[in-house]
Design brief:
Layout lengths: L1 H21 L10 E6 L6 E6 L5 E5 L4 E5 L7 E6 L4 E8 L4 E8 L14 E6 L14 E5 L6 E6 L5 E6 L4 E6 L5 E6 L19 E7 L2 E6 L4 E6 L12 E5 L6 E3 L7 E5 L4 E5 L5 E6 L3 E6 L8 E6 L4 H4 L13 E6 L4 H4 L2
Length: about 350
């Protein structure tokens, strides 16, 4: 009897396991872009940086401001720095604890070109001096006047050094900036960075190398009108290691990019022509992730809670840059700070 009961128990367990095996594995739903904070028409958010406390700083191209947003409490948006008419901010990056650097250019909103030569500059400001509440005008300290620059665009910190990297959308260059002395020279000069054609930088002209993100020991970069992204090894003083340049993907018009966590080849790309965030594997495959109208920049969250969240700035209603002729075709999530919450495993969402 005991043997028979044991047989029945074993048989029942086997049937239960078999039944479980027949249940199809749940398919994860594709991620969606969620609006964190909508901005007024014409704001044209260009770039963003995430602070270690999770708050976000964003540059606004046409209003010439830097905005502060807490994505956990986005009700209030504060303007913390502003340029007088004639200059504007492009990119922003942290270098050192709460020390932020921004690129400025003299800029014509009509045709997106610098208004004069000798206007490309890098500035510094100290976020530790900001309380986190209220509009203010933090003092900007000039770090470097890049007189040989064409149109400075992307910016990244080479962590653990005294150097920044800055892309030049009009030349085949990524500049190296000494944050102590202000001296600048070339980190990388390559045809892979070159613009195509001549004329206005945006929307349909000569944008070459655009975004840049340092992920040791590589600097990842995008080239907008060559539809490529790649990387090269950076040495301890910010120069390219000879022979290290790789092109990792093509066929997508890219503004900015964010490499995956770890040491992978993949990256998330902002693709303004198709109004998408796109995942590129680095080995030739691309996958649309979520729709965002006119995405301009993408960065990982930095807290434990949002480490696998992508934050995106966008122009939204800037139809020329978004690559559409009908304003109604621009997605509602545009003109905003938005986010895409990804899964915690590589298999789920390729983070």
């Amino acid at each position: 009897m005991l043997v028979f009961k044991a047989y029945l128990i074993v048989s029942a367990l086997a049937l239960h396991v078999q039944a479980i095996a027949l249940v199809p594995r749940a398919t994860a739903l594709p991620p969606e872009a969620i609006t964190v904070r909508r901005f007024p028409d014409g704001t044209a958010l260009e770039n963003l940086a995430v602070r270690k406390d999770g708050t976000i700083l964003m540059t606004s191209l046409y209003t010439r401001e830097i905005f502060y947003v807490d994505p956990q409490n986005p009700t209030n948006v504060y303007s913390i720095a502003i340029f007088p008419p004639g200059d504007t901010f492009t990119s922003i990056a942290e270098h050192g604890d709460d020390m932020f650097y921004v690129v400025s250019t003299s800029f014509q909103p009509v045709n997106h070109t610098p208004t004069s030569a000798d206007t490309e500059k890098v500035w510094r400001f100290d976020m530790s001096q900001y309380s986190g509440s209220g509009n203010t005008s933090l003092p900007l300290t000039l770090v470097s006047n890049v007189t040989r620059g064409g149109f400075l665009d992307g910016l990244t910190s080479i962590n653990g050094t005294g150097y920044l990297l800055v892309t030049d959308a009009e030349q085949s260059l990524i500049w190296r900036i000494n944050t102590v002395t202000g001296a600048y020279d070339v980190s990388l000069n390559s045809s892979a960075l070159a613009p195509i054609g001549t004329g206005a930088v945006l929307p349909n002209g000569t944008v070459g190398t655009n975004g840049v993100v340092y992920r040791a020991p590589y600097a990842f970069f995008s080239n907008t009108h060559k539809k490529t992204y790649g990387r090269y090894v950076v040495d301890s003083v910010g120069r390219a290691v000879e022979g290290s340049l790789e092109i990792l993907g093509n066929d997508t018009v890219i503004d900015d990019l964010q490499p995956v966590h770890g040491n992978g080849l993949g990256a998330y790309l902002t693709a303004p022509i198709v109004n998408q965030i796109v995942y590129a594997s680095g080995t030739g495959q691309t996958t649309p992730v979520a729709g965002v109208g006119g995405p301009t920049s993408v960065r990982w969250g930095r807290t434990k809670q949002d480490r696998n969240t992508l934050y995106i700035s966008s122009t939204g209603d800037n139809t020329a840059y978004a690559g559409v002729s009908d304003p109604a075709a621009v997605l509602d999530v545009g003109r905003s700070l938005s986010k895409i919450e990804l899964g915690s495993s590589w298999d789920d969402w390729r983070v």
